[in-house]
Design goal:
mainly alpha, 434 Repressor (Amino-terminal Domain), single chain, 6 helices
């Protein structure tokens, strides 16, 4: 998966991105929990769409769990901010 695909998937379906990436890295839920200090159950619920991850949780998963570099992370955050601005325009 290239940088743009990673960002797009993380934006559109974060849970699916987490599950797919975790499995690509060969990590169990426990491995991911150990890297992020989140519970296995919480991560599982994010993956299956039972819980929505707040932005701070997403950053922990992307940085600690998947070791995103700062360039990819900044591109992701720029898209998040752009989406928030677009949402505000629509709702005002």
């Amino acid at each position: 998966m290239n940088k743009e695909e990673m960002i797009e998937m993380a934006l559109n379906d974060f849970g699916a991105y987490v599950r797919k990436s975790r499995k690509q890295y060969g990590m169990s839920l426990k491995d991911m929990a150990d890297k992020t200090n989140l519970s296995e159950t919480f991560i599982y619920r994010i993956e299956v769409g039972e819980r929505q991850a707040l932005l701070n949780t997403r950053l922990v998963i992307l940085l600690c769990g998947f070791n995103w570099d700062t360039n990819i992370l900044m591109a992701y955050l720029e898209r998040v901010i752009k989406d928030i601005k677009e949402f505000k325009k629509i709702t005002n």
